[in-house]
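seq as requested:
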Amino acid sequence: MVKSQYEGYSAGKKSILLRENFGTAKVYAQNAQSLLNKATGFISAYDFTLNPYRGCQYGCSYCYAAAFSPNSQMRQDWGNWVIIKKNAAEILNKELQSWSKKNPGRSPTIYMSSVTDPYQPIESKEHLTRHLLEVMVPYQPTLVIQTRSPMITRDVDILQQFQRLRVNMSIPTGSEKVRKDFEPKSPSIPARLKAIEKLRYSFPYRENCEVRFSITVTPLLPTLPEDEANFINKLEVVDRVVIQDFHASNGRSLIASTREEALALKQKYDWWYNSEQQSYRKFKNKLIAMLPDVEIMEGKEGFGYE
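struct tokens:
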């Protein structure tokens, strides 16, 4: 086993060791102390957040989650490492058992995931997110899954067993050129649109079953004028579209804010960002006009289940 280059990251008194390389990412594994963490801030409407992994291979330039890296070196190398919570399914089952005993008759509300993508590439090998879904089914939580990966369609057989589910597919722009600038490691826009459409039509009607679908255009990135109408029309497949602008940093460096990489990229699209508030309003108004049957929501409110 090769020793990790990140000597500053440790579990107790032991350094985390490199387990393998998966694509361009270094993969580490450790036992988690807990899986369900109290939801706060932007998603405080939920009881818990659930993150199967730490780190994210997509490494999107704007991702605020880089702020929660174990150390400054790993923060700079965001997108090139991931930590697997190898005992996640066991811990989750214990935590849900405990919740059920303390809260008889009430299922928890869970947001998966807040600082990672549960369907990032390593999931194709580990199936960790799938195992966690299997654990959750008997407890029937209200579950919201946030991802930008078409891989979620793999688990439709398990997702169909949830009674209260919302799938949020992240698609910040309708232009592949823009996507490749801001999030070059992420799946293509057509692949994501196809995935959410497939999911949308994979759930037969059942009484007392509320399955919902959102596309989160967050943070709202530019969409080239020639792509805009086609993109917006394709959003009609969901019941909700959520938009919001970049996380503000306000000059602070140790918070969940937009990374410098994305702020630098904004200069390339000055035709949009020189009048950012106006560009945002115009796009929002087009969503409202072109999608009369879709709920258009902004910011925190849009990330709730209801």
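The chain has twelve helices and 14 strands.
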